[in-house]
Design brief:
The protein has about 110 residues and is mainly α. About 75% of the residues lie in helices and about 0% in strands. The protein has one domain. The longest helix is centred in the middle third of the chain and has 23 residues. The model has no long low-confidence stretch (mean pLDDT about 90).
Length: about 110
């Protein structure tokens, strides 16, 4: 969580590879990957702390919601930072990552 927060509030370097939509939005893959890792590690932590070494669907859903709202709050914070900006596609990428992380965890670790 701390790494995501730090990377989300620092002044980002102006990287511009080309005028192609793919390279202009390559950071969305990073968003999805970071939030998939956040959700998966949160689920893993709950599983590790559980006496039965299991994670319920409610716990996975709760961690997924927390992860999504964490990303949403950071995106709202970026609106007020002079060197960052609010982006709906970042929120969408975060949601895709959280969903992917929850599905991967549920599929492989339940």
């Amino acid at each position: 969580m701390a790494a995501i927060f730090w990377l989300s509030v620092i002044k980002a370097p102006g990287l511009r590879f080309s005028d192609h939509w793919f390279w202009d939005n390559i950071d969305k893959f990073g968003h999805a990957l970071a939030y998939a890792a956040l959700c998966t590690s949160g689920c893993w932590s709950f599983r590790s702390m559980s006496k039965e070494k299991k994670t319920s669907s409610v716990q996975i859903l709760s961690i997924s919601c927390f992860s999504f709202f964490y990303g949403l709050s950071i995106e709202l914070l970026q609106h007020f930072l002079p060197h960052r900006s609010f982006d709906l596609f970042d929120i969408l990428a975060n949601a895709v990552g959280v969903s992917l992380g929850a599905v991967v965890f549920a599929r492989f670790f339940r």
